[in-house]
Amino acid sequence: KFLTSISQGSLTKQLKELENDGLINRTVYAEVPPKVVYSLTNKGKALMPIIDMMEAYGREYGDI
Question: Helix or strand or coil: residue 6?
Answer without folding.
Answer: coil
